[in-house]
Amino acid sequence: MSAVGESRQSRCPVCGGEGNLQISGLFDDRYGYPNTYDLFECRACHHEFLPTAFSEGELTELYSDYYPRHKFDPEGYRPHEPLPRWQGWWRGAKCNAFRWVPEGVSVLDIGCGYGQAMGYHRNRGCRVVGVELDENARIIAERQGFDIRIGAFHAGMCEGETFDYVTLEQVIEHLQSPQELMRDVAKILKVGGRVIVTTPNASSLWRRLFGRKWIHWHTPYHVQFFNSRSMSLLAASAGLEIERHLKVTTPEWLHYQWIHLATCPDPGEPSVFWAMRPKPEAVGRKLHLLSRLHRSGFNHLATRLVDGIGLGDNQIFILKKIA
After folding, report:
1. Is the separation of the CB atoms in 203 and 230 below 8 Å?
2. Cα–Cα distance for residue pair 285/283, rounded to 1 Å
3. pLDDT at 95 over 70
4. Does the structure show a pLDDT above 70 at 30?
5. Core vs surface per residue 199-235: b (16+ CB within 10 A) or e
6. What is the mean pLDDT of the chain?
7. Largest alpha-carbon pair distance within the chain?
8. In whole angstroms, what is the distance from residue 94 CA to residue 321 CA?
9. pLDDT digits over 3-13, tens only?
10. CB neighbour class for 162 (10 Å; exposed up to 12, middle 13-18, buried from 19)
11. What digits encode the pLDDT tens for the residues 283-318?
């Protein structure tokens, strides 16, 4: 009998190729969701994936009972703002999909959260629509006058509309069936329009250094790990092509990686850091030292250097609709 969410199939969800086992026994080392999972790599396109088969009920449990909802104070809402060029480079600001959208265009932000990027777009003369699963986004929509559509995205949400840009900010790695999403995105995108996808890079230097404790396995919430080949195949299936592929990473990710190494729990146990549990004194001292390291600029410099050689943790795909 299979464990919750486990699939015995190891076929690539992008090209259908046979998968080879890469890492066995990955587990939720943030929030303590039970069971272990195996990572496979496709022999044909080298896409890496967890062959999960969560039912709708299991996904509800996974994201409602384990994956924490971010606490957000509507009174403290602030849109994202443009950054000076040097500061933006040092902080890896272009790791975010919204930073690649020009002024004065129409934008669909899938997974818009509480609308900080929507405010950024609106302030730059864009027409912007958001899609968000979290019902709490309605509060911001009402207060800020945003058009946020609640639910899992499908093309019918935007029937008759077309957009110049669609953004997918750290979304696609969560999907069991990314083809369905990309095809629906293409339906509401203008010919010549662009999709901006940001997603972790499983070919990064940091993945190689940290192995099974790499922060972005984020099992079992992340189930797809794209490379240029697998993203190209996914894009082509929807009438899109890769226009640019870059690596830009925020230094905050490296800061969190060190914290993750210092606080990684046993299987089935939630992390004192990620799950915001009481921290033993020894852990508190480690976190204080890591905070000082981060403020020194070490993580910023290391991240910029590793991104510079194309091996950073975050990748950006700019996809163009060709037909």
Report:
1. no
2. 5
3. yes
4. yes
5. bbbbbbbbbeebebebbbbbbbbbbbbbbebbbbbbb
6. 93
7. 59
8. 22
9. 555 555 689 99
10. middle
11. 999 999 999 999 999 999 999 999 999 999 999 999
**DSSP β-ladder status, 48-49 and 19-27:** unpaired
User: For residue range 98-118, what is the model confidence (pLDDT) as tens digits?
Assistant: 999 999 999 999 999 999 999
- pLDDT of 2: 42
Task: Give yes or no for a contact between 300 and 251, defined as CB atoms under 8 angstroms apart.
Answer: yes
- Neighbouring CB atoms inside 10 A of 67's CB total 16
Q: What is the CA radius of gyration of the chain?
A: 20
| Amino acid (one-letter) located at 292 | R
**Amino acid type, 27:** F
Q: Are strands 163-169 and 19-27 parallel, antiparallel or unpaired?
A: unpaired
Angle at 170 between CA 153 and CA 133, to 5 degrees: 35
Token look-up 């104070």 returns 73
Position 26 scores a pLDDT of 97
